[in-house]
Amino acid sequence: MTDLIQTIVTSLVDHPENVVVTEKETGNVLTYQLTVHQDDLGKVIGKQGRIAKAIRTVLFAAASHENKRVQLEIME
Q1: Torsion over CA of 22, 9, 76 and 45, rounded to 10 degrees?
Q2: Measuring CA to CA, how many Å separate 17 from each of 23, 39, 45, 61, 66?
Q3: Domains of the chain
Q4: pTM reported for the whole predicted model
Q5: pLDDT by residue (tens digit) across 32-48?
Q6: Across residues 59-72, what is the average pLDDT?
Q7: End-to-end alpha carbon distance in the chain
Q8: DSSP state, 45?
Q9: Which of 54, 57, 70, 74 sits 20 to 30 Å CA-CA off 47?
């Protein structure tokens, strides 16, 4: 799942070498923390959060067969 996030985000940003995805598991909840370059933060979030919402939708669809909840946190 981290590879999926990294693949999506690196195609959006200008500084793909600064994309870092970390995974935390608490019970049945997987939390992915995404850190990008400060200049690329707006590109990952998008206007009114549309790109971030689209990334989360893809994650929910990919994790639906694992019976776990997935969260994506975009760190500053």
Answers
A1: -130
A2: 18, 13, 18, 26, 29
A3: 2-75 (3.30.300.20)
A4: 0.88
A5: 999 999 999 999 999 99
A6: 88
A7: 21
A8: H
A9: 70
